[in-house]
Each structure stands twice: as structure tokens, then as C-alpha cells.
Design goal:
single chain, 16% strand, three-stranded parallel β-sheet, 77 residues
Amino acid sequence: GIGPGAGGIPPTWPSGEGKRVFAYLKPFPALPKLLAMLNQLGCPAIVYGDAIPGAVRQRYRSETLQFEDQRLDLGLV
């Protein structure tokens, strides 16, 4: 797994109210429901998921939810 000190870029958090959410996700059947829920919450969220299809990313990307392909510095997440 990826742990602190494994390197990566600093996160750039999207706007939003409330606690920040970082999710390391792979495609699974309920992924669209989870992404829709994150959008409804309006909290700043970063989803790391290099296997998530572009169409899914495009549909759920918003001011408060962004997708990341590059490894993030988990010490700063």
C-alpha cells in the first residue's frame, strides 16, 4: 500500500464546506452512487483512481469534487 513518506505531490483541495474527504477508489458497482453522494455533501473531496473511466470522471467532477491520477503526498492529505 501507499503510506506516509512514500512521496507524491501536495494535494490541491477543491472548494467546499466541511471536512475534507480523500478517497482511493477503483471502479465498483456503487461508485456512481458514492460520487453523487460526495457531490451532494458539498465537502471538498479528492478521489485518486487511475482506473476510473473518463466518462465517470467527467460526469461527477465539480467545484467540490476532483479526480487525481498522480500519487499524492499522504502526509499532507
